[in-house]
Fold this protein.
Amino acid sequence: METYKRLLLANKAWAQEKTTLKPSYFRELAVDQRPDFLWIGCSDSRVPAEEVTGTQPGEIFVHRNIANLVIHTDFNLLSVVQYAVDYLKVRHIIVCGHYGCGGVRAAMTHQRFGLLNKWLRCLKDTYELNQNEIESLPDDTSRTNRLVELNVRQQIKNLAKTSIIQSAWKREQRPLLHGWVFGLDSGLLHPLQTMGPGDPLPDIFRYDLDD
């Protein structure tokens, strides 16, 4: 059997199970979504947001890309953030990386990966800023995992630098920004950082939001 056909069969079994347990499940699901959370995660298939957090469809609004990056020229990401903040009114944004990230490992090499090199360029900047700390670590695994953590922290800062977040902070004192890392070998989420209204931000990145 073709592998994609297995997915369709599994979907039928899943839908049947849901309606058997709760006949109104899909009618309720179709009404609307009211998530409290926006999840910005890595595209790695081993880190599905709903599964690792034990949540149901409709509870988390999800955006994923390679190495969970928040890049100020990525209009796809920014559109997701604006929709989540301004229309879904999420109260929390989670940037979640994972230890052993292939994108982070790739950024730490000198190899040419085509377009991927351009996407991972900002990771090299984070590496350069923390080079002494990273290179003091004893092995490739610990160096990669430290850059995973530093990257998550940087993406939280990048979110805070957007006018979308600053405007919501000023108007409604939300959302809180959370930086987490998922351990593939343990299944556990490790909180690294939380940032919210009133936390310090370099003055050059603050927007005049009076008008």
